[in-house]
Amino acid sequence: MASNVNPTVRRRRLGQELRRLRELKGMTAEEVAERLLVSQSKISRLENGRRSISPRDVRDLCGVYEVEDQRMVDGLMEMAKASRQQGWWHAFGDIPYSVYIGLETDAESLRVYEPQIVTGLLQTPTYAEAIVRGGSPESSDAEIEKRVQVRLRRQERINADKDPLRLWVVLDEASLRRVVGDSNVMREQLEHLNEMAQLPHITVQILPFEVGAHSGLAGQYAILEFADAADSSVVYIEGVTSDLYLEKAPDVQKYSLMYEHLRAQALNPEQSRQIIADIAKEYARGSGLD
């Protein structure tokens, strides 16, 4: 989806502009909330793009900030209208990580560390179904199918003929050896992983067990970067009941440095493809296909 119709990115850019206007006025989010008789958390969510923003919200905020240029006010209100459009993912109903999907859809590059499973953008349909079913045993078959279809739809970004998402993935060896589904599912998944790893815009590195302690022990995270200079990089950390988005420069720099250490400790891409192929052969023998 083009960035000019991505509601998540529109909200994010609008929120950044509203934050800039507030800071120019020298006001805190708490002061603005008191003036508008709303919660401080609402102002924060509007500014970080996590909440849908209405033209009325924009008008009220511009009033508080004493914005005299009516063309600017009108332009921001138009952005608010556009930000309320629906992305492709809304057709699937309530998706818990819809904010992330919106960012991923517009990202130019993505760096991911996964300690437990093969990352979603590189999953096969059968592996994805087994992951979703195992992680949400209480979900209905219809809900599981919906979540799998969303995951497969997300993969269009890395399969696009024009400007595909640049993807760099560091996987812990555990993600290759954890049997998801059965041996056939794992063999198919690892063979697919190696095929994808040979594409010029995708790099896969494996962090072997022998490395021991490393900077990724705290868990999974992703770093999204965007082509537009106005869009700052985002660190995404998935949670069980809520997700965390870090956009402040020191936080992004910290996670970027951690990622550089992971890449340095991991096997190089060629060595990684070899260990993936070797483990795939082990699964083939286990399923009687060798």
Structural write-up:
InterPro entries: Cro/C1-type_HTH, DUF5753, Lambda_DNA-bd_dom_sf. The protein is α/β, with parallel strands linked by helices and 290 residues long. It has 13 helices and six strands. It has helices spanning 7-25, 29-36, 40-47, 55-64, 70-83, 98-106, 125-135, 141-154, 156-159, 173-177, 183-197, 249-265, 269-286, and strands spanning 109-114, 166-172, 202-207, 221-225, 234-237, 244-246. The radius of gyration is 22 Å and the shape is elongated. The model has no long low-confidence stretch (mean pLDDT 88).
The shape, in one word, is elongated
Low-confidence stretches: none
**Distance between the ends:** 42 Å
Helicity range: 40-55%
Computed structural class: alpha/beta
**Topology as a string of helices (H) and strands (E):** HHHHHHEHHHEHHEEEEHH
Query: What's the overall average pLDDT, rounded?
Result: 88
Strand order of the largest sheet: 3-2-1-4-5-6
Q: How many runs of DSSP E, i.e. beta strands?
A: 6
Number of helices: 13
User: Which sheet architecture does the biggest sheet show?
Assistant: 6 strands, mixed
Cα radius of gyration in angstroms: 22 Å
Question: How large a portion of the residues is in β-strands, by DSSP E?
Answer: 5-15%
Domain HTH cro/C1-type: 18-71
Organism: Streptomyces xiangluensis
Protein name: Helix-turn-helix domain-containing protein
InterPro entries: Cro/C1-type_HTH, DUF5753, Lambda_DNA-bd_dom_sf
